[in-house]
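Running this now, will post back.
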Amino acid sequence: MRVEKSATLAEFHAAYVALVREGLTSNTVAAYDRAWRLRVEPSLGAVSIADLRPLTIANARSMWDCAAQTKQDAIALLSRLLGLAVLDGLIASNPCRSLPRSRGKAHETDVVSRALSDRQVARMLELTASHPFGQRSLAGLVFTGLRLGELVGLRWDDVDTTSGLITVRRTYSPDGHGRLELRPTKSGRIRSVPLLDELLPWLDAARATGFEHVFTGVRGGPFDSGNLSRAVQWPETRTKIATFADGTPLRFHDLRHTFLSRLARLGVSPANIQKVAGHASITTTENYTRLSYVDAALAVGDHVKRANREVTLSGGEAAEERRNSGTFRGS
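Update: finished.
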């Protein structure tokens, strides 16, 4: 189907949406569909393909009220669409490639500093004991490092206690209409994670429920972040577990940071952590192998304190200089 040069972006999208989706994982397709429906179409859908300029797109981007990553998804979709328009000869170049960079201070997430200590993990499980199903899911998150959708997607045939492995084959993801649907994992790949001894008692309790999935709600359905939060009263509970200097409250995803940081502390290689975590890039994994801001500050503080103690025990630097010069006199 040939699209005229006067076609709007919405008309072009309708004609070539199948090509846009070709080769993408189901999660990426879902993200692109949301980006189109909520951001790109409302702001740019009526604009002619030929009239789409970098500043037009940049202005629309500045009006989108969402997180930076969400904006990036929308621009990625738009760039894919306009790349097809270039192939079709409707425009000479892809205006998304000339977009001005978003200004503003970059905020690097120090994932290691958001990891919970063993004492904080124990505190979390203690505080959520009133809801065994929710408590069990929190234990699953912190002892597997899975994303929440991956955890609640686990079935019993994914758990092999003989080999000590959990196989991650699928995830529950929002469908954009308030429901969860089963999809392949974020990377589209199947992977394995170790079955730690700490998780075994929680699995025994889950097996007694008789549900098909391992980590479920009371009626056997999957948790999403909303109903898990309500089940364990997360807004009130999390402030009793940990607080962070940047003011961002404890999130379920920080339990994944906790597991992966623990692997890094134990000396597991970045390559192995990457495989277990399901990271597409080793750069993401390396965030867990770096010294956190908190650990760095504590290490510097300890170093200075040791140096000060050495000076104090010898009578101080000034006293040492007087001894060396022979001018020191006792009281």
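Residues 141 and 205 are 16 Å apart (CA to CA). More later if anyone needs it.
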